[in-house]
Write a structure and sequence with these properties.
The chain has 14 helices and 16 strands. It is an alpha/beta fold. The protein has two domains: 128 residues, Aspartate Aminotransferase, domain 1, CATH 3.90.1150; 228 residues, Aspartate Aminotransferase, domain 2 (3-Layer(aba) Sandwich), CATH 3.40.640. The strands form five sheets. The protein has a seven-stranded mixed β-sheet with strand order 2-10-9-8-7-3-4, sandwiched between helices. Strands 12-16-15 form a three-stranded antiparallel β-sheet, covered by helices on one side. Strand 3, helix 6 and strand 4 form a beta-alpha-beta unit. Helix 4 packs parallel to helix 11, helix 5 packs parallel to helix 6 and helix 5 packs across helix 10. It starts with 5 loop residues before the first helix and ends with a helix.
Length: 381
């Protein structure tokens, strides 16, 4: 694989040409006016009196305090805010890794996240295993460790597979990292859209002294336009290093985004319940669609409601199918090959169908019509 951002290039090429978009992984977005209606008195005052100067490089103390309330063992000194989750992850990798280190990366993972590691040091990929559900084999992580291994990077809940890590595997992984003195970094941005919150894994920063939790308001809150993410960790010295790296990328958050994010955190239950209702309705539509088109797709159980990732059964392959679908039917979905890794083999026969956005029903109708037309043409030839 060449050093390109395959997913970004795909969206750049086909996004402007389609009428129906199933590519998103974020929950339905809110308008500014709708979000402001959720503000309490203090946030209304902050918004009305907002100055547009520089802000605290770590994020406003009241914002970090609101974020820390999401964790069991942390306070505002255990949080550093950044301009989105990817800046958090990039800053984290630069803070922890040097050129003579080694890292283990659980794949598939967002391509820029993998690149944030491999641009610094050597790495070994450990792929999720398809056993009817996607699972992480902790023994394979252990086998990948080297004498200079510094950290393990993962993304649970996972994109594009929808996999979650079960409590026993997480406990074993934490024990492995503790035994070897490793940092364990998890991109947790899809945690709020688990199908069953009771089965949600604990946040890594709460359960491991070298656990690093990365999160943002982009996915579960449906607010990617605010560009606010954060890193949470018990180790303040590590956070100081993250802040130092971050200073080379962005000096601080935008002041309006700080206030709007604080509003969203305060209204989390209302926002997430609204988003889950949309996700649940769309999930029912996708399940009906997959049942109607068993000749084209093989579904797979997912613990996450943000998207599904069925296997594509056509002989043309998932990559070509996605391109032809965009070109001929104006429907955009993402083939799993866009998560191709340089470190280990990842599934290339799946498509990720996003469930968060309004308009999924119309997009599925267009997709269904395309499949029916194609089937008729094949039968007539």
């Amino acid at each position: 694989m060449s050093e390109t951002f395959a997913l970004g290039g795909f969206l750049e090429r086909w996004g402007p040409r389609v009428r129906h978009d199933l590519s998103g992984s974020e929950a339905a977005t809110l308008t500014l006016s709708a979000l402001l209606e959720l503000a309490g008195p203090e946030d209304r005052r902050r918004w009305q009196e907002l100055g547009l100067g520089y802000t605290d490089p770590r994020g406003a103390s009241w914002l970090r305090s609101a974020i820390a309330e999401r964790y069991d063992k942390l306070d505002d000194t255990h949080i550093v805010c950044c301009a989105g989750a990817q800046e958090v992850l990039t800053s984290t990798m630069r803070a922890l890794l040097a050129s003579d280190d080694h890292a283990v990366v659980v794949v598939p993972i967002y391509q820029p996240s993998e690149r944030a590691v491999t641009s610094i040091c050597a790495a070994t990929g450990v792929p999720l295993e398809d056993r009817g559900a996607w699972l992480l084999d902790v023994d394979r992580v252990a086998s990948a460790l080297q004498g200079n291994t510094r950290l393990v990077l993962m993304n649970f809940p996972n994109s594009p597979t929808g996999a979650s890590i079960d409590p026993a595997a997480l406990a074993a992984l934490v024990a492995l990292c503790r035994r070897h003195g490793l940092w364990l970094v998890n991109d947790e941005v899809y945690g709020l859209v688990d199908l069953d919150p009771r089965l949600r894994s604990p946040r890594l920063a709460d359960i491991y002294e070298r656990g690093v939790s990365i999160n943002a308001v982009s996915k579960g809150f449906g607010l990617p336009g605010l560009r606010v993410g954060w890193v949470a960790c018990q180790d303040r010295r590590f956070l100081a290093e993250v802040q130092l790296v971050k200073s080379m990328l962005s000096s601080c958050l935008a002041a309006p985004s700080e206030v709007l994010t604080h509003i969203a955190l305060g209204a989390e239950n209302r926002i997430v319940e609204r988003n889950k209702a949309i996700l649940g309705s769309n999930r029912e539509l996708v399940e009906l669609f997959l049942d109607r088109h068993l000749e084209a797709f093989e579904g797979q159980a997912s613990a996450n409601s943000a998207f599904v990732c069925p296997r594509y059964l056509g002989s043309d392959g998932a990559d070509r199918f996605a391109v032809e679908l965009a070109r001929e039917a104006g429907v955009l979905l993402l083939p799993s090959g866009l998560w191709q890794s340089t470190l280990a083999e990842t599934p290339g026969d799946r498509v990720r169908i996003g469930l968060g956005r309004v308009g999924v029903g119309a997009a599925l109708q267009a997709l269904s019509g395309y499949l029916v037309r194609r089937r008729r043409v094949a039968a007539a030839s």
